[in-house]
Amino acid sequence: AALPAEVPHLACCVYAEALRCLPAMVRLWWNNQDKRVSGVVERFTSRHASPVLAQEIAAVQATGRRIHDMTVRARPAAREVVATYNVEEVYMELVVTLPPNHPLGPVAVECGKRVGVASQQWWNWMLQLSTFLTHQNGSIMDGLALWKSNVDKRFEGAVTCLFC
């Protein structure tokens, strides 16, 4: 029996919504598929779903989000989101880059600039953000909010040394 015409459309809508709301779950499912199925899913996602999901970057660009001491801007053509955090003598910038098969492939989290932060502390924050974006079902903005929260905790109540 032939499928009704709306079933493939519904399946695509459900898949796109799963990618948006449950990216880690879809990634886990995809990683457990045989090579043939994972290849078909990756091609479909790269061609049809990822460009739609990359609109998340365009949405960031449109709002020019600023959350207290953090500014978030987008580079849609490069599929990047840049977050900057600036408090007193501390300046940090990180870049989140989406792969062509987003969210199946892992995002890249890179250090833009950092002033006033030890490299070990910076590495820990980058690892936390990368882990969140890879293994949790949250958006890039959710991950950046977590990163900001961790940075805020580090500098909460910190007294500026006049001699340092």
UniProtKB/TrEMBL annotation:
Its EC number is 2.3.2.27. Residues 70-154 form the E3 ubiquitin-protein ligase listerin ubiquitin conjugating domain. Residues 5-60 form the E3 ubiquitin-protein ligase listerin HEAT repeat region domain. GO terms for biological process: protein ubiquitination; rescue of stalled ribosome; ribosome-associated ubiquitin-dependent protein catabolic process. Keywords: Metal-binding, Transferase, Ubl conjugation pathway, Zinc, Zinc-finger. It is an enzyme of class 2 (transferase). InterPro entries: LTN1/Rkr1 (IPR039795), LTN1_E3_ligase_6th (IPR054477), LTN1_UBC (IPR054478). GO terms for molecular function: ribosomal large subunit binding; ubiquitin protein ligase activity; zinc ion binding. Pfam families: LTN1_E3_ligase_6th, UBC_like. Belongs to the LTN1 family. E3 ubiquitin-protein ligase. Component of the ribosome quality control complex (RQC), a ribosome-associated complex that mediates ubiquitination and extraction of incompletely synthesized nascent chains for proteasomal degradation. This is E3 ubiquitin-protein ligase listerin. It comes from Petromyzon marinus (Sea lamprey).
